[in-house]
Amino acid sequence: MVFTKSAQIHGRKLVELLGSWHGSDRPSSQLLAGAIRHLVLDGRLPPGTRLPAERELAESLGVSRTLVARTLDRLREEGFAASRRGAGSWIKLPDSERGNEAHGGWFPPEDAGVLNLAQATPSAPPELCAAVDRARLRLAEQLPGHGYQPHGLPILRERLAERFTRRGLPTTPEQILVTNGAQHAFALVLRMLVAPGERVLVEHPTYPNALEAVRGLNAMPVAVPMVEHGWDLELLTANLRQTSPRLAYLIPDFHNPTGIRLDAEGRDRLARALARTCTNAVVDETLVDIDLTGEQPPPPMAALTDRVITVGSASKSFWGGLRLGWIRASEDFVQRMIVGRAALDLGSPVFEQLVLAELLVDADEVLARRCAEAVERRQCLVDALREHLPDWRFRLPDGGLALWCDIGAPVSSRLAVAAEQHGVRVAPGARFSVHGSLENWIRLPYTLPGDQLVEAIRRLAAAAAAVPGGGPALLTAPIA
Ligand SMILES: Cc1ncc(COP(=O)(O)O)c(C=O)c1O
């Protein structure tokens, strides 16, 4: 493990990340160590992070130094921290988790015994192998060239442009830039449009990696809360007016994590608000194809205002392992992005682009099966929740790959710690929050096969019963 520079986390920041780590229970080293361990496993405390000194930590947390010292002892014993006299303590991964360090702090290590509900990522469709075979035959045409295509392969840009046009958003191949996934696409746009210290408006909750990108640029996320039925457009418009964000980041097509879609009327209002306040918006369409409604889709946001830059992805429609996404914007903007991109990378892999171009030929069939499977698995998850955790509340998502579940008490981070010990990994609500709040919520993806989902929920129910101070109270607490 090589760290060029270890980050120091301040007591105040750690307290924010820890949220309500002991709930209404007495603080204990067991609870604190569990909460810190969870932050490490879900990537919010990367290995190498230097912890505050014992005294600072005790003061920030409002606990005794003895409790902090015991917590550090526990973390050291479990292999999650190391200390050296004079150098303080820092986060590390236990040897058993080491093989996965290449993932960085972000993706928790895979563990054969653990059912992973922390990521809403589907496996590859069976059609992928045939697409690979066809792409292999087309590769020969590419080999005489140098292989660098910073804008993307022409055939892929053409097919992506055709898909936008078919959805009611006329698009030329020159308006498409192929990227290494939607996250890369968003990071490129951010870098192009936003300077450190500027504001970026986000829905709250929102997709955690987008928040990381905003924070990584030292820009300031401005959180606009989602309400039960989706977007409070009056509030959103007021925020656009009052905070003058440099950019908005929005997920109107099966919002992650709630799975809600913004309807046609809402889109009109949003487009008008963006135009009136002269705010550019990135509309993230990563989940647009996972439409579980069976209804006619509303128009793409970019068809309603030229303030919208669309980012898309092959990850949910086809497979995350392709690591391909795209930006759809004006030709001029795409041209500027190609120039700006050179500072970071010089294009996406040719072979994967050929594979995606092949997959797009039969996209409608692949996606019809993918959505049918998602409906089936969503039902398995719903049935398992009704049986094992009947008091948890959720709204059936319109699309996407996860349920956003109200667990009835502000203990989701502690539940996630307990869940890990029961062999299931979950993403607590705080993960989707700008301030580490949303402790009443948990995101439950339905991407695993049905039998694994049922087993995961059974384990989660056992974990909920074991959460200190939770148990029956957690299961029956009234929902605010
Ligand atoms: C809303 C949203 N945007 C972006 C991404 C990342 O997509 P990609 O794998 O294409 O980088 C995800 C993945 O979960 C997502 O849910």
UniProtKB/TrEMBL annotation:
Pfam families: Aminotran_1_2, GntR. SUPFAM superfamilies: PLP-dependent transferases (SSF53383), Winged helix' DNA-binding domain (SSF46785). The keyword DNA-binding applies. One of its GO terms (molecular function) is transaminase activity. The keyword Transferase applies. It comes from Saccharopolyspora hirsuta. PROSITE patterns: HTH_GNTR (PS50949). In the C-terminal section; belongs to the class-I pyridoxal-phosphate-dependent aminotransferase family. Keywords: Aminotransferase, DNA-binding, Pyridoxal phosphate, Transcription, Transcription regulation, Transferase. This is PLP-dependent aminotransferase family protein. Residues 26-94 form the HTH gntR-type domain. InterPro entries: Aminotransferase_I/II_large (IPR004839), HTH_trans_reg/aminotransferase (IPR051446), PyrdxlP-dep_Trfase (IPR015424), PyrdxlP-dep_Trfase_major (IPR015421), PyrdxlP-dep_Trfase_small (IPR015422), Tscrpt_reg_HTH_GntR (IPR000524), WH-like_DNA-bd_sf (IPR036388), WH_DNA-bd_sf (IPR036390).
